Amino acid sequence: MLPGPYERWYTEMAGRPSPVEARSTCDSCVMEPGSPGLPPEGAFDPALRCCTYHPHLAPHLVGGILAGGSAAGQAVVRARIAAREGVTPLGLGPTPAWEATYQRVTAVPGTFGHSHEILCPFLAASRCTIWEHRGAPCAAFHCKFDRGAYGSGLWQLIVIAFNAIERALARWLLGRQGLEVKLCDDLLHAQGDRALEQRAWGSWYGREEAYFVAAAELITPMAWADVVAIGGRELSELGPALRGAVTRFAAMTAPARVQRGGEVLYRIGRAGHTVLQHSAVPFDVLEVPTPVAERLQKLQPGPLADLVSELGLDDDLVRRLLDWQVLMPAP
Ligand code: SF4
Ligand code: SF4
After folding, report:
1. Which residue has a Cα nearest atom 6 of ligand 1?
2. How many whole angstroms from 51 Cα to the centroid of ligand 1?
3. Of the residues 47, 229, 233, 235, which has the fewest C-beta atoms closer than 10 A?
4. What CA–CA distance (Å, rounded) separates 81 from 36?
5. What is the DSSP code (8-state) at residue 19?
6. Could you tell me whether strands 264-268 and 273-278 are parallel, antiparallel, or unpaired per DSSP bridges?
């Protein structure tokens, strides 16, 4: 479910609620050691899970935390405001130090879900302390998708849509509160410049908490029509585009002809089995008998029905091979 007003706006845009990914069961994390279906790289560190990441929180989300979030979430935000670290009128993001650490740590593959150095400051006791106010990228992240690579693609579209929405709302907010867009943009790239900070915050300097709470009060109650009125043409086109994508996604049927998908790694699995790993959903693998994998690996374009009958594939496996793009539509 999307955070704050986003679920409401999404439902108005897409004509249905956001997708439910039933296989990413965060209350009982499916990436912990010993879980079934782990990728070849193994489990995440249970203390970190998938939160080796730092969100960029829009001003109204920061205000939502301050006005009604958990005490732990509020403490992180207040400490950041007091230290003037990673906080601008455009919201709250990584500090320069966190960003530098992230660049260094992620230069080595396999650190996601493993490096304590890049743990999100909002994670405490393996739980997100700002769940109701987390950003769209956090809400969109799932280690496992009901519809595999296609499901991941739909969530990426949702993130792109909310990035556009947040940009439009932030520009509007700055104007509404008497702040200059250019100064605030400049501050994003020059954190620690105290003189610039004072100019960018203008009359809100020293009253940053009040600024964020006012952002939440102004933006959270908005209907989608209010957001579109602010965002103009770009946002008015977003709704139909998203609704079209969601409708096509729900109506997808098996193609008559298939070919081998190019984004899938074939890796050694349990005895007699091969693991199929799509680059878009690396934590969500399929495991098939090795003879099936060998046939798929050498597949030439041809009728799906022939392949199904030759390999004796059941309907569920065919659907997953298609959703994970192991099999792609062929001309
Ligand atoms: S999305 Fe994250 S917390 Fe949820 S089940 Fe997957 S790894 Fe665990
Ligand atoms: S904001 Fe919450 S969900 Fe997002 S990375 Fe941090 S702890 Fe995880």
Report:
1. 143
2. 9
3. 233
4. 42
5. P
6. antiparallel
Residue 234 CA to residue 161 CA, distance in Å, equals 10
Q: Which of 296, 291, 286 minimizes the C-alpha distance to 272? A: 291
pTM above 0.85, yes or no: yes
Q: Distance between CA atoms of 213 and 220, rounded to whole angstroms? A: 10
224 lines ligand 2 (CB under 6 A): no
Paired residues of 124 in beta bridges: 127
What count of other Cβ atoms lies within 10 Å of the Cβ of residue 210? 12
Ligand 1 pocket, CB under 6 A: 24-26, 29-31, 44, 49-50, 142-143
> CA 151, CA 35: separation in Å to the nearest integer?
22
How confident is the model over 89-99, as pLDDT tens digits?
Answer: 999 999 999 99
Return the pLDDT at 233: 87
139 CB under 6 A from ligand 2? no
Task: Reply yes or no on whether the pLDDT at 131 is more than 90.
Answer: yes
| Percent of the chain surpassing pLDDT 90 | 96
Taking the centre of ligand 2 as the mean of its atom positions, its distance from the CA of residue 102, in whole angstroms, is 15
Region of residue 4 (left: phi > 0; alpha: psi -120 to 50; beta: else): left
Looking at the CA of 43, name the nearest ligand: 1
Q: Quick one: angle between helices 304-311 and 290-297, nearest 10?
A: 150
Give residue 1's pLDDT.
87
Instruction: Report how far residue 165's alpha carbon sits from residue 161's, in angstroms, rounded to the nearest whole number.
Output: 6
CB atoms within 10 A of CB 250: 11
> Token digits for 30?
């499916």
Place of tokens 């070919």: 259
Tell me the pLDDT tens digit for each residue of 48-107. Answer: 999 999 999 999 999 999 999 999 999 999 999 999 999 999 999 999 999 999 999 999
Reduced to 3 states, what is the DSSP secondary structure of residue 183? helix
